[in-house]
Amino acid sequence: MRHDSDESEASTSAVDEDSGVSSGGEEEGEDSDAEERSVHGFGIDEDDSSNSLSRFSKPARPTLSAPSQNAAHLPTSFASLGVSSALQHALAQMSIRTPTEIQAACIAPLLEGRDCIGNAKTGSGKTIAFALPILQKLSLDPYGIYALVLTPTRELAFQISEQFAVLGASLNLRTAVVVGGMDTIAQALELKNHPHVVVATPGRIVDLLESNSGEWNLSRIKFLVLDEADRLLTPTFAPELSYLFKVLPSERQTCLFTATWTAAVEKLAEAPPRPGKRKPFVHRITAPVETVETLKQFYILVPSHVRESYLYDLLCHPPESIAHMRRAAPDPTPAAKKGKRKKAAKDDEPDTPQQPPPTIIFCNKPRTAAYLTSLLRTLGLRATALHSRLTQRERLNSLGLFRAYVVPVLVSTDVGARGLDIADVAMVVNWDMPVESEEYTHRVGRTARAGRGGLAVSFVTERDEERVLKVEERIKTKLEEIVLPESRVLEKLNAVSTAKRMANMELHDTNFGRREQIHKMKRTN
């Protein structure tokens, strides 16, 4: 079975080693961790590991910041980077007039024809950093298939395609999204029409290449982009990448972009260039803190068996710094108003909680995401789920509802942790601490984007101390503790306990456990 976006959960979202049943009362299946290893064809090797030695009782380290290399000497306008007037106009239409650091560093080398490895914090505009050079060079010699962009998740692929479409509108750009969960015949027909830019997950593009009867190929590719490169350069994607490196032309530009600098990325940056090629241009952030300065990061110490009550309290009583970011749900369409009168009356009842500001809750398993979504809905909070057991249509629908604030809470596994750019996310909650510390950076990067403020709150149970230490060591920042009023939390204990039972009954009635077993069997075959 080819790996598509769902492998993000299979490899980075492992079970707690000491329990097969979650602390929240929902059953969980098993997943496996992945280790980094070499992928020949672009020279990737072992991943690093870090050990932590401190704990909560130690005084907080001061938060340091430092500019990236040569940041003070980078160009301050797109014109000075050599970006064409047509693309500058497209950027202005998007209210983008000044390049970010990653854009200012990488656009010119890419326009010069160099390979590039770009490292920047989440929300810093990495997509535009590689999209502009691709579009500018394409405008000089338009043909398809010109560029292939690989991503680890389906949702990110759709988002990148949308950004290409907006920037390349004046060029009559044609893009194709090639990901799992969609009709392969329709995708093959799209590729037969030779779109200029293909945005794909590795598994599906390889499947289509292997079943292709010669109607299209990647022999004229000029650009290969690995977005979220740290995730792509893992064993999960190794077979697909090895296959692609064999069929792609050697005379191409290759770009890697990542928010987390791993040993695999560093090995590649230090590797000698192929014969006849220049060493890739490397832009790496040198700031000791991996997360952005506008992000406030906290943890809540909570017994695992009452996490649900604390989560409900946090959502109903968000910190004052983000409470003002609550937004009213959009007005329903006239056709929908009639059928929603009874529901609206129910929402006006005194016990109905006030909806939280836009919040993403991350957990490690699809079952946990489904469980928490059901639990929050039972408690009167509008929530929707994003995980690999949903169909692609359901996943896109969930994202659409959250973007439009029809629902203010998105409960997601790590398929939603990378690259998704959703404006005004006020808070990220880690229901489960991530197994791999670098995933923390990607999760909390869904808030405090593009200079905005945001909050990250991690639930720390009796089993999470080692994971918290690893996260703190990686981001070079101590998480601050916040304490919720216990009396207020316990007020809703009975209601939350009832909601827990109902959520578990719903999962049982929908045979979610059976679906998990089937999915596991497919992965192992």
TrEMBL record:
- Name its species: Gloeophyllum trabeum (strain ATCC 11539 / FP-39264 / Madison 617) (Brown rot fungus)
List, alphabetically, the GO terms of the cellular component aspect.
cytosol; nucleus
Mind telling me what this protein is named? Answer: DEAD-domain-containing protein
List the InterPro entries: DEAD/DEAH_box_helicase_dom, DEAD_box_RNA_helicase, Helicase_ATP-bd, Helicase_C-like, P-loop_NTPase, RNA-helicase_DEAD-box_CS, RNA_helicase_DEAD_Q_motif
Placement of sequence motif Q motif: 76-104
Lyase as a keyword of this entry, yes or no, is no
> Region labeled Disordered — which residues?
1-70, 325-360
The residue ranges of the Helicase C-terminal domain are: 340-490
Where found in the cell? Nucleus
> From start to end residue, where is composition biased (Acidic residues)?
15-34
Q: Which UniProt keywords apply?
A: ATP-binding, Helicase, Hydrolase, Nucleotide-binding, Nucleus, Ribosome biogenesis, RNA-binding
GO molecular function terms attached to this record: ATP binding; hydrolase activity; RNA binding; RNA helicase activity
Q: What family name appears in the similarity comment?
A: Belongs to the DEAD box helicase family.
* Limits of the DEAD-box RNA helicase Q domain: 76-104
State if Metal-binding is listed as a keyword.
Answer: no
